[in-house]
């Protein structure tokens, strides 16, 4: 008779409740023609991206990502998500625009470059239009509230936040230098000597703010969207890009302040580098623009080649000495930055990666000596590629982590998993100290593709009830609550019918925490590599002895919930629940 009572108590004896896994674009944009596909692609650019590396700081599961996309598309459609694909690509584009425009401006606004093709000026004007478009993109993009750790998508709040924190620097960096030169010089814009005046000097000083935008947008190189090697290469690219833009700006300022000093004194100092270059261009040999550009590049990169010869300067003019010294200081800063990144990369490669490869090789050698099947060996090899294996190895072999006090390890677990257990509806009203202790008791389990998370053992028994015979299948007893931390699990009935999927944040087996005979009535199989957070029922009950009223209330509520569901369904629709 107890097996029939289990029919009412079991967590799995109810209809499978599946939350729709369709994306909002598939639901709200109907059709399969080209226009519908284009609309989905276009709108997907501005919605929260599933591929963004930063979303884990704000959304705990893939289901939370879908819900956020629903909210944005239906309520804040006119606002760009800061973690969207468009924003990711736009940051790359605007970075290249600023760097290219800074190099073009160096040529077109300098009186030493005479009679450049008009296409240079038109191209510079086009880049400034893109920069102006970037102002609009920044205004309509939502922002991340660091204090509350949430993404704000309200257009009004986004505009106010932008005006409060970024408006001045962004507008100052978007001054249309080429457009102003077109207005001032018209068809005579290609004349080099015409630009030897205070007006151009003032524009160049204002253009210094664009260096801030280069540094700001270059953070797109630091996003953890690549492998560790590619990520390190991207960081070095960022250092190189910022260094190049800074040296261009420093050379530009050197020429500007030297020229302003000449204007102030009313004469040209023959010992200055600027006077030497002017003589080289307009005096002795009349060097062409290309050769002069190569000479200019050599001057800009000069601090990089004389990093060990800071005292071997040949400058005689006071401003040349000052900017040469600043160039060396800035170069030392960037070299130190590069050395830190090199050390970080080598530490990862030599330490963590080598440990993992050594452990993998030793394990594979043991399996080979045991003559296990190739299929099993391949599965073990795949486990070492799973990101969770690196965490396991660090916990086991990292000396610093091993000797950490228990209280610190518990705090690490709280920081990683507390929000997950807090979002489970069953525990939403529980006291925070109790939930913190439950979080500490969680154990992490890894499953590879096609691994069985729960199994139904089919052994047939016959019992007599109401003068009829019924075949009852013996099942595997549930051992505790299981929460999907990452990955996808598929749920199958005992007849191998697929009932649904479990994703990040979903849970099952809760009834086993309060019953002794709760059994698994479905198969749960890992569709991808998955990590499960397991709360054992014995540890749970031992701890809940100190909170008997909370436990009995939880038991009654849980049993009533699933008993009511079981009574309202047919026996043929037995399945596995999806957490709500």
TrEMBL record:
Pfam families reported in the protein's UniProt record: cNMP_binding
Keyword terms, alphabetized: Membrane, Transmembrane, Transmembrane helix
PROSITE patterns: CNMP_BINDING_3 (PS50042)
TM helices/strands, residue ranges: 88-108, 120-146, 322-350, 519-536
Stretches assigned to coiled coil: none
GO biological process: regulation of membrane depolarization; sodium ion transmembrane transport
One MF term in the entry's GO annotations: voltage-gated potassium channel activity
Residues annotated as domain Cyclic nucleotide-binding: 440-544
GO CC terms: HCN channel complex
Domain of life, per lineage: Eukaryota
Entry protein name: Cyclic nucleotide-binding domain-containing protein
The species this protein was found in: Spodoptera littoralis (Egyptian cotton leafworm)
């Amino acid at each position: 008779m107890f097996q029939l009572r289990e029919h009412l108590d079991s967590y799995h004896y109810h209809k499978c409740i599946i939350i729709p896994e369709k994306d909002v674009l598939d639901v709200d944009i109907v059709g399969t023609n080209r226009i519908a596909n284009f609309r989905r692609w276009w709108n997907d650019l501005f919605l929260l991206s599933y591929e963004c590396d930063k979303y884990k700081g704000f959304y705990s599961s893939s289901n939370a990502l879908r819900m956020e996309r629903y909210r944005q598309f239906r309520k804040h459609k006119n606002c760009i998500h800061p973690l969207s694909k468009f924003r990711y690509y736009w940051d790359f584009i605007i970075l290249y625009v600023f760097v290219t425009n800074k190099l073009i401006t160096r040529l077109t606004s300098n009186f030493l470059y005479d009679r450049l093709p008009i296409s240079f000026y038109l191209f510079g004007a086009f880049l400034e239009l893109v920069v102006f478009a970037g102002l609009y993109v920044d205004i309509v993009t939502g922002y991340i509230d660091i204090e509350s750790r949430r993404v704000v998508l309200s257009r009004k709040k986004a505009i106010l936040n932008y005006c409060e924190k970024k408006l001045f620097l962004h507008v100052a960096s978007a001054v249309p230098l080429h457009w102003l030169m077109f207005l001032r010089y018209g068809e005579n814009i290609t004349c080099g000597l015409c630009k030897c005046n205070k007006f151009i000097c003032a524009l160049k000083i204002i253009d210094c703010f664009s260096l801030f935008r280069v540094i700001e947008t270059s953070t797109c190189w630091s996003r953890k969207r690549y492998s560790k090697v590619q990520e390190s290469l991207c960081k070095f690219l960022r250092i190189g890009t910022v260094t190049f833009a800074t040296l261009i700006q420093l050379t530009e300022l050197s020429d500007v302040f030297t020229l302003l000093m000449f204007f102030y004194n009313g004469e040209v100092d023959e010992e200055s580098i600027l006077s030497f270059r002017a003589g080289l261009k307009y005096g002795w040999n009349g060097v062409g623009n290309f050769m002069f550009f190569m000479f200019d590049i050599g001057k800009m990169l000069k601090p990089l080649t004389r990093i060990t010869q800071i005292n071997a300067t040949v400058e005689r003019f006071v401003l040349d000495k000052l900017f040469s010294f600043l160039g060396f200081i800035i170069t030392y800063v960037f070299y130190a930055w590069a050395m830190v990144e090199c050390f970080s990369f080598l530490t990862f490669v030599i330490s963590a990666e080598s440990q993992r490869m050594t452990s993998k090789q030793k394990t594979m050698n043991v399996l080979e000596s045991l003559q296990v099947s190739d299929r099993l060996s391949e599965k073990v090899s795949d486990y070492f590629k799973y990101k969770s294996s690196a965490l396991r190895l660090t916990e086991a072999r990292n000396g610093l982590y091993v000797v950490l006090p228990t209280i610190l390890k518990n705090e690490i677990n709280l920081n990683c998993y507390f929000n997950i257990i807090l979002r489970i509806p069953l525990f939403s009203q529980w006291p925070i100290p109790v939930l913190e202790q439950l979080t500490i008791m969680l154990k992490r389990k890894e499953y590879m593709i096609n691994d069985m998370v729960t199994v139904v053992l089919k052994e047939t028994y016959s019992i007599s009830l109401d003068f009829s015979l019924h075949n009852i299948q013996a099942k595997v007893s549930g051992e505790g609550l299981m929460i999907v931390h990452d990955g996808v699990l598929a749920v199958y009935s005992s007849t191998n019918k697929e009932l649904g999927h479990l994703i990040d944040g979903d849970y099952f087996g809760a009834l086993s925490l309060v019953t002794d005979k709760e059994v698994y009535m479905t198969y749960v199989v890992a569709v991808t590599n998955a990590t499960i957070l397991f709360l054992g029922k014995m540890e749970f009950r031992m701890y809940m002895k100190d909170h008997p009223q909370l436990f009995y209330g939880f038991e009654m509520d849980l049993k009533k919930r699933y008993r009511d569901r079981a009574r309202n369904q047919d026996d043929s629709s037995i399945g596995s629940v999806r957490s709500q």
